Amino acid sequence: MRNTARGIVGLTAVLFFSSYAWSQNRQANQPIRADDGKTLFDKASTTGTGGPAPRQELTGFWVGLVSAKLNPVPPMTSWGQEQFRSHKSHSQYSEAESNDPMKYCDPMGFPRDILYDDRGFAFAPMPGKMLQPFQFNRVWREIWTDGRALPKDVGGRSADSPDPRWFGYSVGHWEGDYTFVVDTVGVDERTWLDAVGHPHSIDMQVQERYTRLDHNTLEMTMTIDDPKTYTKPFVITNARFRWLPNQDLVEEFCVPSLMQEYLKTIADPASDAPGK
Amino acid sequence: MKGKLLICLAAIGLLSGPSFAHHGSAAYASSVVVMKDATVTKFTWNNPHCIVMFDVKDEKGNVAHWAAEIGSPPAVTLLGWNRNSLQPGDVVTVYMWPAKSGRPVGRLNRVVFPDGKILKDTQLGGGEGEDKKY
Fold it and tell me: What is the mean pLDDT of each run of 10 residues along chain A (276 residues)?
């Protein structure tokens, strides 16, 4: 009986594996739902408006979907397509074959830190800047608000060209009392935009517009302009965030040693990686 | 079919392949296998994914050592898991997507305890109505 059962498994597996379109899973995170069908975002969405939005004030922790829902990207340039082909995402390749930077616990950087894992972030003002700490890996980004201009020629050939950065260079300002606008340049090309592996160039310019609708609701629109990679500018997401009621984010790190243990125990055998 | 290792395919043709948060589904089968009388040997509560290790015996007493991943601690916490959800020696029924490689690893779908309690992995609730497929 056991052999019969195994035979059925094997035959069926062959049929399924040969026909299943794994590329259909080429998508970003799924929202994580609790037993009652509620995500943390859902739960934070039951708290009402909390009253009117305070003026020019974003301080505190915000929770989003696990991943923002992303709009389709416009056609890529030939350079963009070449980069995209070189990005082997988890959704299309096995863990052993993938070269997703997350596999190595490399920085997700910007904007992936917002687009891919937005279980939570905060805004924390400091003199002359706004910090944006993220739940995942407890990393942070700085957004200058002192009126300085964005650097030019990041990653260029001249001696005084600034270095590319995982999170780029960001400046922010208020438009009216409820919309905080952030412009970013100079993001290191090693970062991916999303889990699918969409690329960007050092020339990418990103604008985020955070509008506080009421005390508990924050909306963000992100626009990407990267003519070296995409044939036209595009809005990659319109995301909504909610005020986290207890303001207490769980700790979540990508730990290199634990990642290695995971790869050795699960991912490499699953993909039958050579040498494992 | 009274062997302790009972493998069956659940809802052939109805199941979609798993889709996961941080790590891919490309290595896993698109149909779920069921393993009864699985004895938990270890449960790790770590990023990037928690891991359930368990043994399953066949009729002759041969033991297979399996390891199945679930979501990250923050993810599965929302589904009722905690770091003490499984203890070595617990005997449960495991539903999982096995690796295409044929190695004894997989992506866990859910664990059913003798009292009927169920702990689901994250991808079960990933899409609208996905539970109804079982």
Answer: 48 38 34 56 89 98 84 97 94 84 93 86 97 94 98 96 97 98 98 94 98 97 98 96 91 92 92 57
Q: Specify if B77 maps to a domain.
A: yes
Give me B70's structure tokens. Answer: 């679930």
Check residue B123 and give its pLDDT: 65
Tell me if B6 is assigned to some domain: no
Q: pTM surpassing 0.90?
A: no
Query: Measured between beta carbons, which residues in chain B are less than 8 angstroms from residue A12?
Result: 9, 12, 31
In a domain, B133, yes or no: no
Which of helix, strand or coil describes residue B76?
Answer: helix
A and B: number of Cβ contacts within 8 A:
159
- pLDDT attached to residue A132: 97
Contact B25 A25 (CB under 8 A): yes
Contact across the interface for A254 and B100, Cβ inside 8 Å: no
Q: Contact B7/A6, CB-based, under 8 Å? A: yes
Distance CA A211, CA A177 (A): 9
Indicate whether B4 belongs to any domain. no
For chain B, the domain total comes to 1
Contact predicate A204/A43, CB 8 Å: no
Are B24 and A29 within 8 A, CB to CB?
no
User: What confidence score (pLDDT) does residue A180 get?
Assistant: 98
Q: Which residues of chain A lie closer than 8 angstroms to B24, CB-CB?
A: 25, 89-95, 98
Residues of the domain holding B62: 33-128
Residue B58: predicted pLDDT: 83
The answer to whether A216 and A41 are in contact (CB under 8 A) is: no
CATH number for the domain that contains residue B81 = 2.40.50
ipTM of the complex: 0.77
Measured distance CA(A161)–CA(B65) in Å, rounded? 55
Mean pLDDT of B24-42: 87
> What is the SS3 assignment for A234?
strand
List the single best residue of B9, B16, B23 to mutate versus A (max A Cβ within 10 A): B23
